[in-house]
Design goal:
Radius of gyration: 18 Å
Number of domains: 1
Order of helices and strands: EEEHEHEHEHEHEHEHHHEHH
Number of helices: 11
Distance between the termini: 36 Å
CATH class: Alpha Beta
Strand order of the largest sheet: 3-4-5-6-7-8-9-10
Structural class: alpha/beta
CATH topology: TIM Barrel
Shape: globular
Largest sheet: 8 strands, parallel
CATH superfamily: NADP-dependent oxidoreductase domain
Bound molecules: NADP nicotinamide-adenine-dinucleotide phosphate
Number of strands: 10
Length: 295
């Protein structure tokens, strides 16, 4: 074990670790072991989603780890096919069942649906009800742009605690982060080490890797760290929550060994300078309920 994650305070005073394990594309047969390994290494945040189809294995990994339930921060997400008020409440129960948990730490709307706003808003209202009933400790959203956050917030009551968005050195989301700071929303970085630019090679920035950028590898050499550790450290120093995915035990450990060094402000700025302003994931403004087919 290489340290203890720092924690971020959410807008309702709940504390969330600043570093966690993501499990998007973790094959179900490898997910329980990955979660167990991460928890044994000191991770205390696991990020899954109904759409990842591995909630059951996440629950299995939690059990196998022997770590107390109340020491772990578990996030899952509501998929588009379950948007709407009653369907969202049913989907939450189904997720909790698969995870084998009594409550959730964070429930996120996986995507905005600006072209079909009624089910999107109703789904968030269902999340507000789950929060009021004490079934989830915090609620939030994912993939919301500044404009979409405002649209949702104009029609709902609870300010999202978290907005989980694509964020890595090629897409640093400066404007969104500034808005989050003003509204008291924690920014959570998905694809924190740039995974999407690898597995979606035809997207903007596709085929390039932040882990091979000289601005990153030079810092890695300076500190005796890996490129992934430098990039994760960069997230932490920006006050972000990062959720790198790996199913490999040595990388799970590597990605958590980032609490024993610090970048200078100039070095953080040098990594910021890799920003292209281009997202590699789907454009949130154009998402419809059926945009991704059934999951
Ligand atoms: N809300 C959303 O719409 C959304 C979208 C995408 C992702 N996410 C969340 O964010 C998490 C992370 O994002 P991501 O999976 O897209 O990308 P990522 O964490 O940036 O990158 C993951 C990729 O990098 C590899 N990797 C992991 N550690 C490494 C290391 N130390 N050195 C080199 N390669 C390494 C992994 O392979 P191995 O497994 O083989 O190690 C995997 O291919 C997801 O798992 C999910 O929880 C959310």
């Amino acid at each position: 074990m290489s340290g203890t994650s720092t924690v971020l305070k959410l807008n309702n005073s709940v504390e969330m670790p600043a570093l966690g394990l993501g499990v998007y594309q973790s094959p179900p047969e490898e997910t329980a072991a990955a979660v167990e390994t991460a928890l044994r290494d000191g991770y205390r945040l696991i990020d899954t989603a109904a759409a990842y189809r591995n909630e059951e294995q996440v629950g299995e990994g939690l059990k196998r780890s022997g770590v107390d339930r109340d020491e772990v921060f578990v996030t899952t997400k509501l998929w588009l096919s379950d948007y709407g008020y009653d369907s969202a409440l049913r989907a939450f129960d189904a997720s909790l069942d698969r995870l084998g948990l009594e409550y959730l730490d964070l429930y996120l709307l996986h995507q905005p649906v600006p072209l079909e706003p009624e089910p999107w808003v109703a789904a968030y209202k269902a999340a507000e009800k789950l929060l009021a009933d004490g079934r989830v400790r915090a609620i939030g959203v994912s993939n919301h742009t500044p404009g979409l956050l405002r649209t949702l917030m104009d029609r709902t009551d609870v300010v999202p605690a978290v907005n989980q968005v694509e964020l890595h050195p090629y897409f640093i989301q400066r404007e969104l982060r500034e808005l989050h700071d003003r509204l008291g929303i924690v920014t959570q970085s998905w694809s924190p080490i740039g995974g999407i630019t690898q597995y979606w090679p035809h997207a903007p920035n596709g085929g390039r890797s932040v882990l091979q950028e000289p601005a990153v590898t030079e810092l890695a050499a300076k500190y005796g760290k890996t490129a992934a550790q430098v990039v994760l450290r960069w997230h932490l120093q920006h006050g972000l929550c990062a959720i790198p995915k790996s199913v490999k035990a040595h990388r799970i450990a590597e990605n958590f060994a980032v609490f024993d060094f610090a970048l200078t402000p100039e070095e953080v700025a040098a990594v910021d300078a890799l920003d292209t302003g281009l997202r590699s994931g789907p454009d949130p403004e154009t998402i419809r309920l059926d945009s991704f087919g059934r999951r």
